[in-house]
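Researcher: Can you fold this with guanosine-5'-diphosphate in place?
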Amino acid sequence: MGTAHSKARWKAGARVVMMGLDSAGKSTLLYKLKSNQLVKTSPTVGFNVEALEIPGQLSLTLWDIGGQDQLRCRWKDYLEGTDSLLYVLDSTDPDRLSDALAELEKVLNDANMVGVPFVVLANKQEVPGALSLLEIKSRLNLEQFNNHNWELRGCSALTGEGLAEAWHALIRLLKSPRRMPPP
Ligand code: GDP
């Protein structure tokens, strides 16, 4: 169990990285965040990375991970100074949940991610038969990540349901003291 670090991770221009396997719904989510005015953005699109900036609040950089070993060295570069991670899952794809977990573990094991809080966004919740949050929590064994503050939220990037709550969870985590591993 980690100990609370006194420094909260809320600051102007907090760095948030959004990651997940391909097809989890990250681009759709980004588009929805922009279009429903949850955030005001000036997007830029670069080489395999999308980013948005909310001036004075935060920057968000989006990466597909998994199956892209040649890109991993690039996204690792972007983890330095990360304040929070948004990890997007496809709740309708139980077969790739273990891949998603393996990739999440790799990201959180990066030296830059020690104690960095994260939100797991279980996307596509509006689809009948989607995995429930309880199932996802237990299959990912999220309690193993107790060296980080984390929250699990359900959402639908398609309908926008749950996005405001997820956004609030992210802000809450950024404002809370960072957990640090025991010495
Ligand atoms: P990315 O690879 O993670 O950026 O995933 P995309 O945003 O490209 O989405 C992959 C596919 O999933 C697309 O066909 C989207 O329309 C679909 N999708 C994304 N979010 C949702 C959602 O919340 N519900 C449903 N039913 N489909 C979604």
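Model: Folded with guanosine-5'-diphosphate in place. The beta strands are 3-8, 14-20, 44-45, 50-54, 58-64, 84-90, 118-123, 150-154, 177-180.
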